[in-house]
Amino acid sequence: GPRFESELCRALTQHTGFEAVMRIRCTRGMRISNFYGNFFVRGTDLLALPNCNSDSVFAFDLVHDEANVTSSVVTVQSALLYTSSEGERRIRVVTQAIPVSSLVSEVIGGVDADTVTSLLAKQALDIGLKTNLDNARIKLQQACVELVRASKEGDKPRTISGYAAPPPMQQHQPQQENDTKPIPANLRLLPLYTLALMKNVAFRGGTDIHPDERVHAMHRLTGMWVADSKHFVYPRMFSLHDMGPSAGLPSAAAPDEDDISNDKVAGRDRIELPRLLSLTVDRLASNGLFLLDNGLDMFLWVGREADSAILNSLFGTNSLEGVEMSQIKLQTSGNDFASRLQAIVSALREDNAPQTLTAKVTIVREGDHGLESRFFWHMIEDSASFNGGTFSYNDFVQFVNSGGQGGPPGPSRGPPGAPNMPGQGGGPPRPPGPPGPPQMGQGHQGPPPPMNQGYQQSPVNRGPPGPPPPMNRSHPGPPPPMNQGPPPPMAPQQMQGMP
User: The whole model's pTM is what?
Assistant: First the structure.
């Protein structure tokens, strides 16, 4: 369709570097342990790239190679050697100096939740391909818990073999004290994004996802930049039926970069966006229309009791009941509401590239089980019954604040059903923009049942327990105790007192 045509045109016409190689070097005392992206490794720091363009994304893990780093900064340098479309051999060098600190608080203060989420997604994808999806979800869960725990424990002088390290679980602060400490502002959305990753098509369990669809999501997530992966992991849902008169029109306010990052405007013309909602069925209403965008697909959810005037403006009919949905087309002009919606849809796909992608909007009618079930895949704040999805947002935040004590609740009654009517949703309304952590005690009736620490078992019980999942050395946390063979022989003096 039009989306494939626009993606193909962009791939064929954008500037591309051919026969490329990239070398990444860093300060002595540090080394690069893993690379993520599409490439062939030719050496410890040399990558072979058949071609690269502005959409190419590469990530790497930087670890200590020596006990101490004596310099005040860690320098990372990348050099890309490629052949341009005109046949010229060119090189591009980028160097960045990163300050070094021995204080955990300073390191935590410089963490960006969006960037960490993008890197964790690529690390978990690597683990999922090498082992299984259960280990990938455990990696995401443990990384979030340990980062939040380290941020709450603050600066504690402790080293292991010369490396700064957080205290072990048996020696950290009393659990109740850590539970009451707030998560730092820059990490407040990390539990939300981690939960969204665990429920993403690339990682979620269940049999309702076709293997081709999962592989496509994995491939897309591997090559996504931070801003793109943010919306793919935690989609944006807009309320259309009650949008203000300026929504869908160019903003008259002075340009501000925070407006784009806060999803207030989008596109080159700075089109104002409608009100953002959190991803839960409690926000849906049968008398409304809601647009959901994950950066790749768009869904327009239409309630049974939606205003007939709006339906006539968008679809040319006063009701969608009994209508064959394959025959329904979304109007893009002819009236004010349709024109403003088209401006919003186009602005959400515009970026700095000269070739703008065309969005595909799927119309979802309330009660249409086939399409509505796919729409509810993105309601990540609700508990569901698939493997890895039994956490609700409130449950997961409590799990993270408790330092990983316990596990997910038991299986729910199934995936979210029909949306609740207005006034039936639980919890107070949330402010516009990506929702922050919930107020504790709402929507949760007690702590989740305890589970073993370290590598946790699958959230859903599917029969008698089998063998433990294969170990993966990229997982944090201690491995389970191994059998060390027969005990050593006793000394003669110990044997004399035995009968």
Answer: 0.77
